[in-house]
Amino acid sequence: MPVLLGGIMIGGLFILFFGGGSNTDDPSQSPVLANVIVPELSEVARRGEELFNLNCSACHGKNAGGTDNGPALVHDIYNPGHHPDQAFVRAAITGVRAHHWGFGNMPPIDGITQQEVLLIARYIRELQQANGIATLPHEM
What we know:
By secondary structure, the chain is mainly alpha-helical. The protein has a single domain, classed as Cytochrome Bc1 Complex, Chain D, domain 2, CATH 1.10.760. The chain has five helices and no strands.
């Protein structure tokens, strides 16, 4: 009996620390959001929106709401405390291995610059703020 309880506890700790997958029955845990509130965007964010639409929306969806090919970026997992703007820069410029969702690895975006990704990040942060996820970092 103690071995069985120990195994259950170790299994539970493994799931707690390494995740047991996403709970797609709970919309707040879904990597794809259907309804993103779009605020009045700042000039900087409007420039980021244009770049997002050219470089990111095919996978991350309209208004960063996600698709079957990539997660919604208007999701709490991408809040600035967990994914700072530099995480977006690294992902776009160098690519990133899949680690939160089952969409596969993200390839680098050909020809995108750090400054362009920071404009895109500003757009995402303004969307996140309007959807109750993030407070805005310092002004660009």
